[in-house]
């Protein structure tokens, strides 16, 4: 393929990140511009940066389609330095849930769109929004560009079978139930970044990575391969999150269903009204909760529960990995909340984990070593760049597709091997 540009969309539940990369004849992809549409459905705004210049614009975006149209129009007409859409050959999208069949980047066709739509119930906060962005981006400005889907679940497509659910095999097979794992791009980025900083360790890495933001997850990785992760069949499992409860006794849900609560009501509460918001009642924003935890008992309890659950997973994954070489913090909370990092890592000198208080307090959204020099385990703040991975994966998929190396539709590796 000749030199080209790649436009990346990364849809969140109420936000839309975008980034533009240019392919170069030699070397890595070059970042041209990146930005975020925040608070979709409310007082929306677009923040952007090209590395030297930064901007902030208030916009009207009642949904993800509006946000996408605004970004495209801005890149085409309102961008102060001329149109940036002229040489785009690929438009790549992050899809949270790939289900059983999508375990690698894929060229999107109408058939694929239909299959992705069927997965929406498994990730209702994200898949529908991503599909809306995908539809909006396939307009006349980008009609000649290939559309590529990159999956968050792909990193976890070959988890050890013993991490799966202890359910009857008939249920597992009939409904395609297994631990899919999520935030795969974020965890993959953190692991690859750590390994690039420590090439002398070869492949002998035991890493515990925390992706802490609106959604939260933790992953245990051995020699670059994930061996367990906190999210499972859907993104509802695991850590306490902004509006999701994380781990919960399934008996609670059966009890509620048997006592008059409707399925749609429970689904809404589990996705939108639980977690930090459910406990604190007033907000799910960790910054606000930390600011008022000394005077608001509900806020304090929400923070306590958040840290306790994360510490429980940290201890469990230390056992699974037989220790750890590194602990990595990414995501909005992981990168910008020193108190949360400190509380998750506190009182663990028994296993060789010690933070440096000054380093931890000063680390704010930049890649920083925050462990003490005497710590046996390295602890880093690792700002996550999912967009560069999405762009690189999309480029590789497009090259293979145009050369006929791969098929348009991907299936699970184990299913492929069974068919062969």
Rg calc = 21 Å
Uncertain parts: 406-420
Give the name of the CATH superfamily of the largest domain. Answer: ATPase, nucleotide binding domain
Overall 3D geometry? globular
Give a quick account of the main beta sheet: strands, pairing sense, barrel closure.
Answer: 8 strands, mixed
Q: Per CATH, what is the topology of the largest domain?
A: Nucleotidyltransferase, domain 5
CATH architecture of the largest domain: 2-Layer Sandwich
According to DSSP, the number of beta strands is: 14
End-to-end Cα distance, whole Å, is 31 Å
Mean pLDDT: 90
The percent range for helix content is 25-40%
* Estimated share of beta-strand residues: 15-25%
Give the SSE string.
EEEEEHEEHHEHHEEEHHHHHEHHHEEHH
How many structural domains can be distinguished in the coordinates?
2
Give the number of helices. Answer: 15
Structural class: alpha/beta
Spatial order of strands in the largest sheet = 5-4-3-2-1-6-8-7
Characterization of this structure:
- This protein is an alpha/beta fold and 420 residues long.
- It folds into 2 domains: 5-151 and 387-419, ATPase, nucleotide binding domain (Nucleotidyltransferase, domain 5), CATH 3.30.420; 200-381, 2-Layer Sandwich (Nucleotidyltransferase, domain 5).
- Helices cover 38% and strands 19% of the residues.
- The protein is built from 15 helices and 14 strands.
- It has an 8-stranded mixed beta sheet, sandwiched between helices. The protein has a 6-stranded mixed beta sheet with strand order 11-10-9-12-14-13, with helices on both faces.
- The two termini are 31 Å apart.
């Amino acid at each position: 393929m000749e030199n080209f540009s790649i436009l990346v969309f990364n849809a969140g539940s109420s936000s839309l990140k975008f980034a533009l990369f240019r392919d170069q004849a030699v070397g890595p992809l070059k970042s041209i511009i990146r930005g975020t549409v925040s608070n979709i459905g409310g007082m929306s705004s677009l923040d952007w940066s090209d590395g030297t210049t930064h901007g902030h614009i208030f916009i009207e975006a009642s949904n993800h389609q509006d946000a996408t149209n605004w970004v495209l129009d801005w890149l085409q007409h309102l961008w102060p330095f001329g149109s940036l859409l002229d040489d785009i050959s690929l438009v790549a999208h992050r899809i949270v849930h790939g289900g059983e069949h999508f375990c690698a980047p894929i060229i999107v066709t109408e058939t694929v769109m239909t299959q992705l739509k069927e997965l929406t119930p498994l990730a209702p906060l994200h898949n529908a929004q991503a599909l809306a962005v995908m539809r909006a981006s396939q307009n006349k400005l980008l009609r000649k560009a290939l559309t590529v889907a990159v999956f968050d679940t792909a990193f976890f497509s070959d988890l050890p079978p013993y991490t799966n659910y202890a359910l009857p095999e008939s249920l597992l097979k009939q409904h395609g139930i297994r631990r899919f794992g999520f935030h795969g791009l974020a965890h993959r980025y953190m692991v690859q970044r750590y390994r690039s900083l420590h090439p002398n360790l070869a492949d002998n890495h035991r890493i515990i990575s925390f992706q802490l933001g609106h959604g939260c997850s933790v992953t245990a990785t051995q020699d670059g391969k994930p061996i367990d992760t906190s999210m499972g069949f859907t993104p509802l499992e695991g850590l306490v999150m902004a509006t999701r409860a994380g781990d919960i006794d399934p008996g609670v849900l059966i009890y509620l269903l048997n006592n008059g609560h409707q399925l749609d009501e429970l689904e809404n509460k589990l996705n939108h009204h639980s977690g930090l918001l459910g406990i604190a009642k007033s907000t799910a924003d960790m910054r606000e909760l930390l600011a008022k935890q000394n005077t608001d008992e509900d806020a304090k309890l929400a923070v306590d529960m958040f840290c306790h659950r994360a510490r429980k997973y940290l201890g469990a994954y230390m056992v699974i990995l037989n220790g750890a070489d590194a602990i990595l913090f990414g995501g909005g909370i992981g990168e910008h909340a020193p108190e949360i990092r400190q509380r998750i890592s506190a009182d663990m000198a028994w296993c060789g984990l010690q933070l440096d208080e000054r380093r931890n307090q000063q680390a704010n959204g930049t890649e920083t070593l925050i462990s003490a020099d005497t710590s046996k385990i390295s602890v880093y703040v690792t700002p996550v760049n999912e967009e560069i991975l999405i762009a690189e994966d999309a480029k590789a998929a497009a090259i293979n597709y145009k050369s006929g190396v791969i098929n348009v539709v991907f299936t699970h590796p184990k299913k492929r091997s069974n068919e062969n």
